[in-house]
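Quiz preparation item.
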């Protein structure tokens, strides 16, 4: 009887030990990092870019901090407004216009806004008050009701009237100012001070989004262009340069391009009597290794930049690069 009891006890203890072993083994106590549970350094390159991992399971601690959906792409459109500049940015809930083109451009800008999903504007940046950049700003401001207008020098009377009618705030900006537009970090690289040369005093913006760097230059020229080039030289080469002054021969010199090192260049230009873009400027861009597009040949140029850094290009006309300019 005692022997039978001892055998029962041994059997019960053995069964308990086997049960405990199965439970412990099933908990996954491996010392290796588990990508699916958020432990260790993720090897999925999309994870670091803010894109949801395809792994279906996640630990509670990971799911609390993860976004409900992947971040939306940023869209930047260089609008074909003829001989002038107009650039749109849509990122997250931020809708920004940089320059508005010459008189009568509001229709083309409004159509481009609709295509990329902009209904109203938060911020309007006027690089400088020349008509080919600013003449349509008052109509666009009254139509799309921005909250703020960023300028370098004094605003003209039309812009002041537009601000009064819409309740927008006019803000003068200088080098070092920074803004956040959705996923876009925008830094003002110029001007530091205001002179009597509106082109040289253009607001210059360095945009950073998903690891891509884009430089928007207005009609930048002279010593301020040199300063901006030196700033750009401190960091990796530019993904894209919006070429200054419609490709004028007086801007975008070889030293600046050596500092900036753009992979792509966009020239906003239309039919004109100034010889824009200058063949020598296009040649310098090619010599620097940049692939060149113009709004005159390619139409409105739209970049969709995903959170991963992947970029999709769209052209309303030709998708062919500009290889030369007729003299």
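Solution:
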């Amino acid at each position: 009887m005692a022997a039978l009891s001892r055998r029962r006890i041994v059997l019960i203890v053995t069964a308990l030990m086997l049960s405990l072993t199965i439970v412990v083994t099933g908990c996954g106590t491996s010392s290796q990092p588990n990508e699916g549970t958020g432990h260790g350094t993720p090897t999925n390159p999309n994870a670091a870019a803010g894109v949801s991992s395809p792994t279906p399971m996640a630990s509670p601690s990971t799911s609390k901090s993860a976004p409900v959906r992947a971040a939306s792409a940023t869209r930047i459109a260089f609008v074909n407004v003829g001989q002038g500049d107009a650039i749109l940015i849509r990122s997250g809930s931020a809708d920004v216009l940089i320059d508005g083109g010459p008189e009568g451009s509001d229709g083309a800008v409004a159509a481009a806004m609709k295509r990329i999903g902009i209904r109203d504007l938060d911020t309007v940046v006027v690089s400088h008050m020349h008509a080919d950049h600013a003449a349509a700003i008052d109509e666009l401001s009254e139509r799309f009701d921005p909250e703020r207008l960023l300028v370098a020098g004094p605003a003209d009377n039309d812009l002041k009237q537009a601000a009064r009618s819409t309740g927008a705030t006019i803000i003068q900006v200088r080098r070092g100012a920074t803004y956040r537009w959705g996923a876009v970090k925008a830094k003002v690289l110029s001007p530091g001070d205001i002179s009597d040369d509106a082109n040289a005093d253009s607001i210059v913006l360095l945009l950073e989004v998903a690891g891509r760097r884009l430089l928007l230059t207005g009609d930048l020229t002279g010593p301020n262009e040199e300063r901006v080039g030196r700033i750009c030289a401190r960091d990796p080469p530019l993904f894209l340069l919006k070429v200054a002054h419609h490709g004028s021969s007086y801007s975008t010199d070889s030293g600046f391009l050596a500092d900036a090192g753009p992979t792509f260049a966009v020239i906003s230009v239309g039919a004109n009597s100034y010889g824009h873009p200058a063949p020598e400027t296009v040649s310098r861009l090619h010599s620097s290794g940049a692939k060149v597009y113009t709004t005159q040949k390619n139409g409105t140029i739209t970049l969709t930049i995903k959170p991963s850094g992947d970029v999709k290009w769209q052209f309303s006309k030709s998708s062919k690069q500009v290889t030369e300019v007729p003299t």
